[in-house]
Amino acid sequence: MSRAKLEYIWLDGYVPTQSLRSKTKIVTDFSGKLEDCEIWSFDGSSTQQAEGNSSDCLLKPVFICPDPQRKNAYLVMCEVMNPDGTPHVSNGRAIIDDDDNDFWFGFEQEYFLWNPETNKPLGFPANGYPAPQGQYYCSVGANNAYGREIVEEHLDVCLEAGLNVEGINAEVAAGQWEFQIFAKGAAEAGDQIWVARYFLERICEKYGISVNWHPKPLGQLDWNGSGMHANFSNSILRSCGDKGTYESICEAFRPVVTEHIEVYGAHNDQRLTGKHETASITDFSYGVSDRGASIRIPIGTVERGWKGWLEDRRPASNGDPYKIAARIIKTVKSVEVDTAVAV
């Protein structure tokens, strides 16, 4: 008889930004398969998801991967459900309209490694500031790259767990990093981002370092904020070969700027200023290779004959990838495309 640790992970009901929660379930002779993970429950009154006099919420397993940091263990990402089995109001995954996994997403997750003692990013002195940004992006060396040991450990753990991390790099500001995750299917892309965030938070615990997901933690000083650029495609974008189709899809985003910004992360107005490689939060624009636009059309898409993907550069680092993907899918699906072209 063997015993396994299943770490059930879910998102709480805090607003405007949800946090990760988890607890361990010990099971006997576990197969390692998602279908053998039972629905569990938790006290929703402690997570802003229920009242004390009716506190049970359900955890519905939706994604599983090995947990390389613990012996005989797995991480189990869950949706939060009401006692009657319907999705909880805090459940962003349930609103994704992508049952056939036609949509592919690649999220670029930026973040700051944060020193709780100084309340500043790693690499910032207790008093004052380091050299201006410019030397830190994709850098190497003790005067440029801060926290690499954490970042490398995180990468190894994610890969051992089977997450589809496609790269990492030091970002523009000191103490700022990024990892990228891709999945065929919007829900799984969100699952993997949340699990990767969980691993990063847990790894940082032993270093006494925090992860700062705020999109503009340094205020309006001359330092870049943190985003979570959403690269997305569906079968139409991957195969249409038509510039007009791409422009029609981009234009569909113009009248729903507010609806997108509402789910792209809290405090994003501090980041989307029109500076530091961002478009203004009140504007909408798109362009080939334009990192100052709301949506960038990658040069690779054009070089492939308008067959590829788009990048929405507006989502914030603290955004919920489920809700971001759901809103993007809704907008793209609103476009009537000439099927004679989109083949």
Automatic annotation (TrEMBL):
Signal peptide: none annotated. GO terms for molecular function: ATP binding; glutamine synthetase activity. Keywords: ATP-binding, Cytoplasm, Ligase, Nucleotide-binding. Its EC number is 6.3.1.2. Residues 4-85 form the GS beta-grasp domain. GO terms for biological process: glutamine biosynthetic process. It catalyses: L-glutamate + NH4(+) + ATP = L-glutamine + ADP + phosphate + H(+). It comes from the Bacteria. The keyword Ribosomal protein does not apply. One of its GO terms (cellular component) is cytoplasm. Catalyzes the ATP-dependent biosynthesis of glutamine from glutamate and ammonia. Belongs to the glutamine synthetase family. Homooctamer and homotetramer. This is Glutamine synthetase. It comes from Sinomicrobium oceani.
